[in-house]
Amino acid sequence: MTSRAALAWTLALLALAWAADDPEDCPNCPTVELEREGKPIVAVKTSPDDVSDVFVIEYLDVQTGVLEVLDADSRRARIQGVDVWFDARSRLDSHLETGTFVWAVYNPDQEDEAGRAYLLELLPYPAGEPAHRTLHRFVIHDPEPYRTLVRFGEDTRAYGHVARVERVKGVRELVALGDGSVRYLEAEDRFEVNFVEKEEAVEVVQGKSRAWGRRLDYDNATGLATVRGPIRLERGGEKPLAGRSERLVYDVDDETLMLAGKVVLVQEGRTTEAATAYVIEAEGYAYLYGDPVVSKGPDGEVRGLVVRYHLDSGELLVLEGVEAVFEDAP
After folding, report:
1. pTM for the whole thing?
2. In angstroms, rounded to a whole number, what is the distance separating the alpha carbons of residues 150 and 158?
3. Among 30, 34, 35, 121, which one is least packed by beta carbons within 10 Å?
4. What pLDDT sits at residue 187?
5. What are the residue ranges spanned by the domains of the chain?
6. Rounded mean pLDDT, 17-37
7. Domain 59-135: CATH architecture, name and number where available
């Protein structure tokens, strides 16, 4: 593994400190850091080298431009004058046609007999000036009982066993976090990440709220981290709250958790259903939206289009579109 395309770091040789129980207390653990509007987004490897030595950086090439040739039979393509070859492991958009402006990621150190570089990814891309760039791809694997940590700013953390960070400076910065496996493909001189979407593979923690989902995908261009569901939510306190939804979105800028799709919150015998819920931990409230939001409890039923929900007490205030309030008969 001496090529430009893949460089694995033997972490034990770097005399790094490890903190298995609490990665927050491991300032010298290997990290990858992005930044958005002054807020750091940091992926941290937490397992010692004798458990997993996977903290890898791959240097790959990116070419954006016109797809000039795409031949499935000979498994070759040409993007803006760059000739590449591909195989079954290459990620190609199934709807691509010649003449399309594309994004191509390739490994120039893995050539075929004709000297063509190996194509890893070929996707549509917004048309613009053709450009050649370098992609830095970081791969982290922390198997049980360890978990990779991704910090979003100061107050929000996410955990999983596999993380992939892709960075093309000024163009694209992505983080994927979940469960799965990582292996080195010697013949192709690259690392392969296989994400497996398991229930509760990812945990997101903010304040008293904890949520679990299948996989987290963060785009630094938007500041949004989307967690695929089903989502399970728990919130501690004197009156614990449990919830579920189809997906979760964390907004780094606003520091809010958004539950979306068939949202259900249960607290002290009251069940509240909504289409969307914005959980604002700093204020202690969730703002629920639906057509309508419906909340049923021992003291009756409340309906409204917009409802403010006090996370600690469970008290409701209809802000818009009161439909009905039914009190139980004495």
Report:
1. 0.84
2. 5
3. 35
4. 72
5. 59-135, 202-326
6. 68
7. Beta Barrel (2.40)
